[in-house]
Amino acid sequence: MTKAQILACAGEPHSRFKSGAAKEMLTYHYSGAGPVPEPVQEPNAEEKKSGEKESKSIFSKFKKKEDKNWTCSASLVFENDKLVRVTFAHKDVRSPYQWQSEKDPKKAEKMRKEGVPTCAFSLPRCAPAQ
Q1: Among 53, 9, 60, 56, which Cα is nearest to 35's?
Q2: Of 28, 1, 18, 11, which is closest to residue 83 (Cα–Cα)?
Q3: Cβ(101)–Cβ(80) under 8 Å?
Q4: What is the pLDDT of residue 125?
Q5: What gap in Å lies between CA 86 and CA 26, rounded to an integer?
Q6: The whole model's pTM is what?
Q7: Are 84 and 22 in contact (CB under 8 A)?
Q8: What share of the chain is helix, strand, coil (3-state, %, to 5)?
């Protein structure tokens, strides 16, 4: 898929990183199966009447309102505008063996039993590439 196709169905990413002329990485924070774009918010009646927009800082276009309860992060890597790799992980990811380093035996047993947090990734609103 192209970057434009991904942006159309996944929405704007949490962050972007360019690497050279032909590579770019988009990073999404999400909960559930994958990023889903937020609905476009229409201006309220007063904003429509006055025609004025809320004053914003010069950097506000770089700030994104996001769900503070996100659990997963996905990085989509593009080369020459085509998706070439997707990596994703839980924000609280840890080694499956970390419980072995825990000094408190009760905490170690709890960590061992609860397992490692995981994520799934899909783009539920994206049509398959033709």
Answers
A1: 9
A2: 1
A3: no
A4: 74
A5: 10
A6: 0.66
A7: no
A8: 25, 25, 50
Residue 36, token pair as written in the block: 């889903």
Question: Which of the two residues, 96 and 48, has the higher pLDDT score?
Answer: 96
Tokens of 96: 């499956």
Q: What percent of the chain has pLDDT over 70?
A: 73
Strands 72-79 and 23-30, by their bridges, are antiparallel
Helix (H, G, I), strand (E, B) or coil at 114: helix
pLDDT at 130: 59
Cα distance from N-terminal residue to C-terminal residue, the chain: 9
Q: How far apart are CA 94 and CA 96, in angstroms?
A: 6
Q: Where are the alpha helices (DSSP H) in 20-89?
A: 45-50
CA distance 78 to 1: 9
